[in-house]
Design brief:
The chain has one domain. 17% of the residues lie in helices and 24% in strands. It is built from six helices and ten strands.
Length: 235
């Protein structure tokens, strides 16, 4: 009976996440409540083992020219080092992100303006992990194709806004904030965001496990194969 119950209810456990949230947000009317729309790019969550350097959502923000947008963060020590060497106020050529995994998407190539430089140290104020100190530096705040990006040298999901504040980015200045997190961010951001949207483009931590490669699968299994059929147990 338990096996039959699980089979009957199996589809309830899977939520169809949307990949084109950046495009959708670009056409949203002004929020009825204060605070930014927060897009959780959960498939690139460092807390789940991802590199934190996926470019899928950033690319969409640029493509659809979403205004007042910030990505927190892109883990790219190479770009951070280059920006630090150039200095605040300089324009540098970048190939941002997309270096840790083929699932992360291609690097964003272009010119970026160096807005700020930080040692990458900050303290969590969220109810989730309050008082915890992190060091993801060196870190920089870049402006690339109209989007602010906090670039760090070590992957860590944002528990609250202090991760973006360390490079001078204030969440109240933005209409859209992208965070690389699945759950930990919610303890603080839920009270700040006008809306939270889960986004699941390709990535190491994607909830859609059908996007991953499997070597030893010899038969159809759910949820990799939605039409998988399991025989009734013998009585």
């Amino acid at each position: 009976r338990l096996a039959q119950c699980c089979t009957t209810m199996r589809r309830r456990c899977f939520q169809a996440a949307r990949e084109d949230e950046a495009r959708s947000v670009g056409f949203l009317p002004d929020a009825k409540t204060p605070g930014p729309v927060v897009i959780a790019e959960r498939s690139d969550n460092p807390g789940g083992g991802a590199f934190g350097d996926a470019t899928h959502v950033l690319r969409e923000l640029i493509k659809y020219q979403v205004k007042q947008a910030c990505v927190c963060t892109i883990n790219d020590p190479e770009t951070s080092q280059k920006a630090v060497a150039a200095g605040v106020g300089q324009i540098i050529d970048v190939e941002l992100g997309g270096k840790g995994s083929k699932l992360a998407g291609d690097p964003i190539k272009g010119k970026a303006y160096v807005k700020s430089i930080s040692d990458g140290r900050y303290t969590v104020v969220s109810p989730m992990g309050a008082g915890t100190k992190f060091d993801v530096g060196p870190a920089v705040g870049l402006l690339i194709e109209g989007v602010d990006v906090a670039v760090v040298s070590g992957s860590m999901q944002p528990f609250d806004a202090n991760q973006m504040k360390m490079v001078g980015f204030d969440p109240t200045d933005y209409r859209v904030v992208v965070v690389k997190s699945s759950s930990h961010f919610r303890a603080w951001w839920t009270d700040v965001a006008s809306e939270i949207i889960d986004c699941d483009p390709p990535g190491i931590c994607s909830a859609d496990i059908s996007t991953l490669k499997y070597k030893n699968k010899t038969r159809k299994v759910f949820p990799l194969d939605p039409d998988a059929v399991y025989p009734e147990p013998e009585k």
